[in-house]
Amino acid sequence: MKKTEDIPSISISFSLKFPFIIWFKNYNKEKFLRDVIAGVTVAAVYVPQSMAYSMLAGMPPIHGLYVAFIATIVAAIFGSSRYLNTGPVAMTCLLSASVLYGIGLEPQTPEWIKYMALLAFMVGIIRLTVGLLKLGFIVDLISNSVVIGFTSAGAMVIALSQFGHLFGYKIERSTHIFDVVIDLVSSIFFFIIFALGKFSFKTSSGF
What we know:
The chain has 207 residues and is mainly α. The protein is 75% helix and 0% strand.
């Protein structure tokens, strides 16, 4: 009798660890077709997005696909919500890059990749520890103004860092917005001077 009573509790505990088991109870062909359409739609956006985020973190683009592929599978098995989109995030990539910039490493080098993997492992251990100790309430102690300011500054740094690809110049890689702005303005100024000089040279040659 005792063994039969333990079966439901074991089943519930197992379902809590693997939530996708509960989702399959009411799964049917219609939901499968919807999931296929949703998967193709998300993949069309997710693939280039993950590659861009990988470059933002200073990693080769292919590593973004690795992260997107593995994280999605893990989230599908252990995730608590089937509507949650799991994968690389711009702010996380920016923070990860800032750590390695601080120790003087060059992006997309073997040393950068090695230390980025080590950083990801360390962060994973810390987050796992925080989850097991149920310390998530610490995030609530951070004021809303700090989060908004940090997010806004990060968005500006990310946007400004992409101007290098637009103008064809190598913009200063930094997590400090003033360094990026100064380097961007100087690059644009150099571009204008170069264009005016080339135009004046062609004009004088015409005469």
